[in-house]
């Protein structure tokens, strides 16, 4: 075997090693992205009401997702409005297709940005159906920002940190208390 043939075998071997290394890196990156997405996926929020519909002067629908942060925020909202002449229905954001805006004085969407966007049903509702005199958007994002936010929508955005629970719930409470 001459020097040229040896170099060719060494080159082939180094190309194979490089390709295998790149392939493993791509697989690890893909697996990490999938794992991150699964870990950060929000749970299904349980439905419940705050106060009695019959005694309410105003009706508010809150569409949300289940997470420790959002559950803590909603507990503060519940504590604030329990016993008030206000009916609040809380349900999972996945039920947004069934929402009839005419039935509510205010609708609050409390959701999370994942991969720079909201859940698909929420995006559809915001773009196609939302009456923004009634619909208010509250968003959590890892960065505290939502770069794809539609310009015509007022959005309160924060990170899901324990230190932001009071601020976020106070912003929600202000919208609920708003007089039209």
Automatic annotation (TrEMBL):
Source organism, top-level taxon: Bacteria
Protein name: Uncharacterized protein
Native source species: Carnobacterium divergens
